[in-house]
């Protein structure tokens, strides 16, 4: 039972770190797909 709980906690920690990494890396769509001639 201890191993199962440790695995759940580990998966939760990895998910939180991954989510935080994606939030900081991703750009909003208006910045990612705009060119110099686009007015928003």
Keyphrases for this structure?
single chain; 40 residues; mainly alpha
State Rg. 18 Å
Count of beta strands:
0
Distance between the termini: 55 Å
SS element count, helices: 2
Please characterize this protein's 3D structure.
The chain has two helices and no strands. By secondary structure, it is mostly helical. The longest helix has 24 residues.
Fold topology:
Blueprint: H1 2-25, H2 29-32
Question: What is this structure, in a nutshell?
Answer:
By secondary structure, the protein is mainly alpha-helical. 70% of the residues lie in helices and 0% in strands.
